[in-house]
Amino acid sequence: MTKKTDFFYTQEKDIHFIRPIEIIKEHPEVRGLIGRNPYTIFAIIGLISLHGFLAYFTSQHAWWLVFLVAYFVGAFLVHALFVMVHECSHNLLFQKKQANMLAGILANTVMFFPSSVSFQRYHLKHHAHQGIPEYDGDLPSEWEAKLFNSSFFGKAMWLLIYPIVQTLRIPRLRDIKPFDKWVALNLIIVIGVDVAAWYFFGAKAFVYLFSSMFFSVGLHPLGARWVQEHYLTSDNVQETHSYYGPLNIVAFNVGYHNEHHDFPSIPWNNLPKVREAGAKWYNKIAYHNSWTLLWLRFLFDKEISIYSRMLRKRHDKRVKQ
Questions:
Q1: Where are the domains of the chain?
Q2: In the prediction, which pLDDT does 228 show?
Q3: What mean pLDDT do residues 63-76 have?
Q4: Dist. CA 95–CA 265, nearest whole Å
Q5: R_g of the chain computed on alpha carbons
Q6: What phi, psi does 19 have (nearest 5°)?
Q7: Closest CA to 227 of 174, 294, 160, 171
Q8: Using an 8 Å Cβ cutoff, are 246 and 231 in contact?
């Protein structure tokens, strides 16, 4: 089979600037779902506490149990904390931006890799400039798509090292301040927690935190979330897909991705209500019901590659219809 050598391109306006206007026109009650959920902070505290306890628990047992617990429990906890960081990045907990940033750093403490403050900056650009490589850090880079492409081994490696790959996208992004006092604070606190885990609980606790983070975004069914959100996996060229499966219960409704992009100022607990109100629009577009099946399809289906993304702007390429 011929390897993919280019992304997909469009001149169409981002649907997420169009559809919410149509939905609110017919369902003005959706405006009432916009707001903040300060109770999310208790979910953050609970997740941190459980993850910290498991770091201690695994430190007292065999190495095989460290990786087993990290894969089947820790990964889900860290993934949920990623969702909490995501909520904080949209200022969906508290009124003041600084309070949300601190809450995001708190959620980030046991996630091993300091990322909360930087994620906020890159993620908000992703919403404002979806599909534009110079601003959308969610898009794979050209070298990334070329290197990993569509083979099982390539895509498995891409998922395995996904956190590293995301970091390597930063140099191509414009208009983002990569380092300041907030980034420094985030870095000091998270690395401090990593060091403390090793010092007080030992290497097994440190490895548990590290493994949970990599499993949560990598070679794990949860890794399908990164494919589900914006990879072109349906017959029609649809650049955003939602997931309506049962794992939304432990992922704080992060699967409702079309709904989130349409209404980024609505907190996680109200996203199912957005889908209910907008059923006329959301039920007629493609969506996923299983992250596990999508994960396996992504790995084995050579028709899906790292190039399977929609771009809106590329000065040195001809736009393809």
A1: 1-33+144-150+218-321, 35-137+173-215
A2: 97
A3: 98
A4: 12
A5: 19
A6: -60, -40
A7: 294
A8: no
